[in-house]
Amino acid sequence: MIQPGEVYLVDLGFAGKYRLMVVLSRRDDSAPRALAVCAPITTSRRGGQYEVEVGRVPFLSADSCINVQGIQAVQHHELKRRIGSLPEAALAASKAALVFMFDLEESDN
Q1: Which residue among 7, 41, 63, 75 is the one 20 to 30 A from 57 at the CA level?
Q2: Would you say 51 and 57 are in contact if contact means Cβ atoms under 8 Å apart?
Q3: Do 7 and 41 contact (CB within 8 A), yes or no?
Q4: What domain count does the chain have?
Q5: Model's pTM, two decimal places?
């Protein structure tokens, strides 16, 4: 079963391009669709709160970051090969970046 924090080589189809992406959505064995919400892992940094530093983990060739602005739903069959799992701290920081991106923090108003 696909788990949050796992990194996959993903077939993005239309461009015929494969990318490394991390699963951000929760595990849900009874989900109505076989989809995982994923974000790309990149070495190109733009800076800001939409990027989460991953550093260099054994299965990545360089220091990398997660670009949460690039999230997309991916069908399970497009997750071609599991590469590894990110540290829990990177997953927690990604969730915090999503809270920021979608303005989900409660306000005092």
Answers
A1: 75
A2: no
A3: yes
A4: 1
A5: 0.90
